[in-house]
Design brief:
The protein is of the alpha+beta class and about 200 residues long. It contains 3 helices and 10 strands. The protein has a domain of about 140 residues: Protein Transport Mog1p, Chain A (3-Layer(aba) Sandwich), CATH 3.40.1000.10. Strands 2, 3, 4, 5, 6, 7, 8 and 9 form an 8-stranded antiparallel sheet that branches. A two-stranded antiparallel sheet has the order 1-10.
Length: about 200
């Protein structure tokens, strides 16, 4: 019987040498089972600026002292109060959709028709370019009349002034109109032109 012991020992040793080594046990806390693929959820795109429809946004710098006001109509991009020696005047920036609102010439003529010129007063009409945009503007003094669009005074207002501009470019045109006491808009005329010079069409999406 003693002769069988060495033989059994050698057999067990040979069997052990031919097998794969056992995998080490997982570390404490490690997940057991097959690995899982992780998917990162992309962050949502940044919210777009609220406001008018695509192409309608116009950027400009409001002169110091002018008070921005909430708009009262969807076609109004901006409104502001203009202080001055004659009393408060008002500024409105309109946008009727890309290509809407009529031509620059039609708008300028319509605005000039809203003022009954003061004796000897001659309306001023000029054009200039700013930041890739074409700006046509008018300056008229006299009696501001009610208009068919309902945006003018309820009764004729003597001693008034109208500063109006049509800004043409991609996404436009835009219509900028200031009305109020003559003395106030005479003092604000340079600031009005400076506002027009800062106008830029917002990048299109």
């Amino acid at each position: 019987m003693r002769s069988l012991v060495p033989f059994l020992a050698l057999a067990l040793l040979a069997a052990g040498c031919g097998s794969e080594p056992a995998a080490p046990p997982p570390a404490d806390g490690a997940a057991r089972g097959p690995a899982l693929l992780a998917f990162e959820t992309p962050a949502p795109p940044p919210a777009r600026d609220p406001g008018p429809a695509d192409g309608g946004a116009l950027r400009f710098t409001l002169p110091e002292g002018w008070e921005s006001m909430p708009t009262s109509s969807p076609v109004r991009l901006a409104q502001a109060r203009i202080p001055g020696p004659g009393g408060e005047a008002n500024l409105v920036v309109y946008w009727f959709g890309e290509g809407g609102g009529g031509s620059a010439e039609e708008s300028l003529q319509r605005w000039l028709g809203e003022i009954d010129p003061a004796p000897g007063a001659v309306p001023v009409r000029e054009r200039f370019a700013a930041n890739g945009l074409a700006v046509s503007w008018v300056d008229a003094t006299g009696t501001l009349l009610p208009n068919r669009m309902g945006t003018g005074p309820a009764t004729p207002q003597p001693g008034s002034r109208l500063l109006g501009a049509v800004i043409e470019g991609p996404g436009g045109p835009w219509f900028v109109k200031a009305t109020g006491p003559e003395a106030t808009l005479a003092a604000a005329r340079a600031d009005f032109l400076a506002l027009l010079a800062t106008a830029q069409a917002a990048p299109r999406p």
